[in-house]
Amino acid sequence: MKHLILFALIELLALAGCKPSPVTPDEPPTVRVMTHDSFDIGEETIAAFEEQYDAKVEILQSGDAGVMLNQAILSADNPLADVLYGVDNTILSRALEAGILVPYASPLLDEIPDSLELDNQHRALPVDYGNVCLNYDKGWFADHDLTPPASLEDLVKPDYKGLTVVENAATSSPGLAFLLATIGHFGETGNYTYLDYWADLRANDVLVVEGWEDAYWGQFTYGSGGEGDRPIVVSYASSPPVEVYFAEEPFEEAPTAAVVSDGSCFRQIEFVGILEGAQNRDLAEAWVDFMLGATFQEDIPLHMFMFPANQNAVLPDVFANFAVIPERPAEVDYTAIEANREAWVEAWTEVVLR
Q1: In what helix (H) or strand (E) does residue 126 lie, and over which residues does it extend?
Q2: Which domains does the chain have, with CATH numbers?
Q3: Which distant-in-sequence residues (6+ apart) come within 8 Å of 91 by Cβ?
Q4: What pTM was estimated for this model as a whole?
Q5: 158-174: pLDDT as tens digits
Q6: Torsion of CA 66, 85, 40, 309, to 10 degrees
């Protein structure tokens, strides 16, 4: 009898141990997006995606674009994210050659101009673009009764001696972009090359600083509030509308302007792609589609101060009214940039800084 009671107790304990745990709701799936530190988009925009797909978005900011790409390449066997955003056309070739991105022909590509699509295998899809151009202080030129520059060639004329500040091409993204503009415009061979132009700029007392912040906020007459003495700076075509947007008093016209003559600007294009080995491929595709769609695209200008790649996206009024987009920026093939970047920067350094 005692044995039967003991056996019954053991059976009851076993059944209790097999009792299923209380059911808990599944955690929503997460799409992980690796990007650069300049990534910025409205919380309500990300929330719109999360609500639509009942998912979470995890943003992994990973340094500047170059550092981000290096991280993605080094972690290729065990990817840190599902999606990579922020590779631009100065490093695109490296990303494609590394084989870390997989093809995805988003249906939203029909709304992207062909001029922005550089990868015909659709491993890298255009999200936004910006143009690095000369900017000038309208008020300074009016006060000094001097015609503002209208082209790259103007900067080497005697009237513009000591008026220009540029960023170091070896340490600054806009500095490199402006160097590429001069390469695309003047070329590497012929009677007058890009190095001849830079030699003339140096002779005309161009100032070279390490980065955009020092150039724009420290040396540029308008950006520095008159503390700097350079009324011409390398910046972005979006800088004039941004000045209007952040102004304490409303402007009827932008206080600065961009030089957008043929070949005077370099167009930076930023791309998104799905990483090889993405844990959630379906959600990664949905996120890429979302980035190319109207909700995300129309949020880009006033958060990242770039232009949306989707030609159907509506620009905010301040961009529509005050921005000028170069029709024919300088052209340098992205594969040539990867192959020659170090040599070009070294040659530039030799001519301009040594």
Answers
A1: strand 125-137
A2: 30-130+267-322 (3.40.190.10), 131-266+327-352 (3.40.190.10)
A3: 65, 66, 69, 338
A4: 0.88
A5: 999 999 999 999 988 89
A6: 110
